[in-house]
Amino acid sequence: MSTYTALVHNSNSFHPISRLLFRLSRSTVELVSGNCSLHLFYQLSSSLFVDPYELAQRQQSYTFVRWGHADLEKPVHAVANSDTNVLINVNVPLSLPEDENGGKQLDVEVPLHARYGVPLTSTSPNVGSGNYQGLVLEPPEAFIACPNGFLPPERGQELSTPPAHLSESQLREADLAPEATHFTHIPHSLSDHPVNIIRIPTGHEQYLLLVQSGTAIVILLSFFCVSIVAVRTAVRLSSGAHTKTE
């Protein structure tokens, strides 16, 4: 039976990495080496997103289709109730290392990004955790898509319908027409840490006035410095032009 484990690296940051460790049976490897494909479907809350330009640089590992809010710089309160969905098509290498059971091992890493959160208050439940906001990252849905007529690797894992969280229009956009595709679910195997928590650094409202005042002062000082340099440069150029005229 093929399974996978979901982990998170750099979990205490704005740039966590979702890592999937697959243990693929021989029959699964044969299918994905032929006309079938291995997919991962992420449902990300408004606090998380993927950078399409960053994922595009990983074309040797996978391709992707993304749905959701595209503005990468907005804080979480500006995109509330706007989730991001990502469907990844994994490029399975021809040569994979074997595990102790004779199956194959495959590692897939998907870089994620966290949005700036709402500043914490003195009554926020996360205050005691060092100004971090805890967020559960649900494991992605993993499945194999085969053109109709190809036998799935494990009969007991067959799906009679497409993955529940993917709409028909999304499947068609990913070239996985439901009437022409057979979907086989790959179960998630719990690791030593069954729940993946991302701890997003978050500011505290008691420092807002200090930060805003400091930022305003720095901007004003920078403006004065640039103005002084500009005036001195203009005077020097004007003086040089006057000397040449004489």
What does the model show?
- By secondary structure, the protein is an alpha+beta fold.
- It folds into two domains: 199 residues; 41 residues.
- Helices cover 23% and strands 30% of the residues.
- The chain has four helices and twelve strands.
- It has a five-stranded antiparallel beta sheet. Strands 1-2-7 form a three-stranded antiparallel beta sheet.
- The protein is elongated.
- The protein starts with a strand and ends with a helix.
- The mean pLDDT is 84.
Explain the layout of strands and helices.
Layout lengths: L2 E7 L7 E8 L1 H7 L4 E8 L3 E2 L2 H5 L5 E6 L16 E7 L13 E8 L1 E2 L17 E6 L3 E7 L20 H6 L7 E6 L9 E6 L6 H38 L1
Antiparallel strand pairs: 1-2, 2-7, 3-6, 3-10, 4-8, 5-6, 9-12, 10-11
Search tags:
single chain, about 250 residues, five-stranded antiparallel β-sheet
Summarize the structure.
This protein has 246 residues and is an alpha+beta fold.
Shape: elongated
* Helix/sheet category: alpha+beta
Number of helices: 4
Oligomer: single chain
Overall residue-averaged pLDDT value:
84
Q: Biggest β-sheet, characterized?
A: 5 strands, antiparallel
Helix-residue proportion: 10-25%
Return Rg in Å: 26 Å
Widest sheet, order of strands: 5-6-3-10-11
Strand content: 25-35%
In total, the number of strands is: 12
- Contiguous low-pLDDT stretches (5 residues minimum) are none
Total domain modules = 2
Q: Distance between termini?
A: 92 Å
- The topology string of helices and strands comes to EEHEEHEEEEEEHEEH
